């Protein structure tokens, strides 16, 4: 298991990616993850350990090569009018860049990469298909447990979480809230919030599955029948005062110069116009960055004016 503050370096990411390429050359192919609504794969090394998660862009929920049946059986439950379809792999990468820029160290390093394997789904012609490299999000795997599993243990045995570990987890949980608010994540739940807890030794948190973020308009303005509230508002750590260290750091870090650099990095590395510029797509990418920037700009005001995360979250949503 990797601690994110160490595993998120560019050198470590390159090492993991190279191990994945070596394993593919040795015939060790990815394994389809059965849960979820799109094609996502565990990438293994030569020891058959899961070292990364790869999500091809042409196997996303509305993509033509999505291998999962729920898209066909329950099509009305998929999609969000506030998001660009089949843009999840870029959203995953964008969340990792926001995490890097703010030095939160809660999102496993994620970048757009290309892989080829017969385990992936390809279009078929006359019963044959050609194995070509697919572009998608490549995320380092942490090996942590789901928050739901860990929370169940904590509820069963209150002594597992000491006071110092409780403070540490509140600090990490509030980092996740900061990330979700800035990128306006519409799908945070306890299965894509991962925790590593060894009582008395270590407690870490990883926020994965950030593909349903970076909307082009506020989700609350799209439909009055289907909203996407922050689900973490129901947990006690969201109702506690700001961590003083985190509050001070964010107030000092989030300023016009920082937001300019963040938007520029997202534009150049993630939401860049295609080679053949489509005006509508370019406008949508601009709206994504604009909304993210406005959320980040409002965050310090919440830090100054509010002591409660839940009040701030409810007040900020239009």
Automatic annotation (TrEMBL):
<feature type="domain" description="PI3K/PI4K catalytic">
    <location>
        <begin position="27"/>
        <end position="318"/>
    </location>
</feature>
<keyword id="KW-0472">Membrane</keyword>
<dbReference type="GO" id="GO:0046854">
    <property type="term" value="P:phosphatidylinositol phosphate biosynthetic process"/>
</dbReference>
<dbReference type="GO" id="GO:0007032">
    <property type="term" value="P:endosome organization"/>
</dbReference>
<keyword id="KW-0418">Kinase</keyword>
<keyword id="KW-0067">ATP-binding</keyword>
<dbReference type="Pfam" id="PF00454">
    <property type="entry name" value="PI3_PI4_kinase"/>
</dbReference>
<comment type="similarity">
    <text>Belongs to the PI3/PI4-kinase family. Type II PI4K subfamily.</text>
</comment>
<dbReference type="GO" id="GO:0005886">
    <property type="term" value="C:plasma membrane"/>
</dbReference>
<keyword id="KW-1003">Cell membrane</keyword>
<dbReference type="InterPro" id="IPR000403">
    <property type="entry name" value="PI3/4_kinase_cat_dom"/>
</dbReference>
<dbReference type="GO" id="GO:0005524">
    <property type="term" value="F:ATP binding"/>
</dbReference>
<keyword id="KW-0547">Nucleotide-binding</keyword>
<dbReference type="GO" id="GO:0005765">
    <property type="term" value="C:lysosomal membrane"/>
</dbReference>
<dbReference type="GO" id="GO:0004430">
    <property type="term" value="F:1-phosphatidylinositol 4-kinase activity"/>
</dbReference>
<dbReference type="GO" id="GO:0005802">
    <property type="term" value="C:trans-Golgi network"/>
</dbReference>
<dbReference type="GO" id="GO:0007030">
    <property type="term" value="P:Golgi organization"/>
</dbReference>
<dbReference type="InterPro" id="IPR039756">
    <property type="entry name" value="Lsb6/PI4K2"/>
</dbReference>
<dbReference type="GO" id="GO:0005768">
    <property type="term" value="C:endosome"/>
</dbReference>
<protein>
    <recommendedName>
        <fullName>Phosphatidylinositol 4-kinase type 2</fullName>
        <ecNumber>2.7.1.67</ecNumber>
    </recommendedName>
</protein>
<keyword id="KW-0808">Transferase</keyword>
């Amino acid at each position: 298991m990797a601690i994110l503050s160490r595993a998120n370096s560019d050198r470590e990411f390159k090492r993991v990616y190279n191990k994945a390429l070596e394993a593919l050359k040795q015939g060790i192919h990815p394994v389809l993850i059965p849960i979820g609504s799109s094609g996502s794969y565990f990438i293994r090394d030569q020891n058959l350990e899961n070292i990364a998660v790869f999500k091809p862009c042409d196997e996303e929920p509305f993509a033509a090569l999505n291998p999962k049946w729920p898209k066909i059986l329950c099509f009305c439950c998929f999609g969000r009018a506030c998001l660009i379809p089949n843009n999840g792999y870029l959203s995953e990468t964008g969340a990792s860049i926001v995490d890097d820029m703010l030095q939160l160290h809660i999102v496993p390093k994620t970048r757009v990469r290309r892989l080829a394997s017969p385990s992936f789904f390809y279009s078929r012609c006359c019963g044959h298909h050609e194995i070509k490299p697919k572009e998608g999000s490549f995320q380092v795997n942490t090996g942590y447990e789901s928050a739901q599993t860990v929370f169940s243990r904590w509820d069963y045995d209150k002594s597992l979480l000491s006071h110092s570990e409780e403070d540490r987890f509140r600090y990490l949980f509030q980092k996740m809230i900061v990330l979700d608010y800035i990128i306006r994540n519409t799908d945070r739940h306890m299965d894509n919030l991962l925790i590593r807890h060894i009582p008395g030794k270590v407690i870490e948190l990883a926020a994965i599955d950030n593909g349903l973020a970076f909307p082009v308009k506020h989700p609350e303005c799209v439909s009055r029948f289907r909203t996407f509230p922050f689900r973490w508002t129901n947990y006690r750590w969201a109702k506690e005062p700001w961590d003083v260290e985190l509050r001070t750091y964010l107030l000092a870090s989030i300023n016009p110069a920082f937001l300019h650099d963040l938007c520029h990095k997202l534009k150049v590395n993630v939401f860049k116009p295609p080679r053949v510029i489509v005006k509508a797509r370019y406008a949508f990418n601009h709206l994504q960055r604009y909304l993210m920037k406005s959320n980040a700009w409002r965050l310090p005001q919440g830090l100054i004016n509010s002591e409660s995360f839940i009040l701030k979250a409810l007040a900020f949503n239009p």
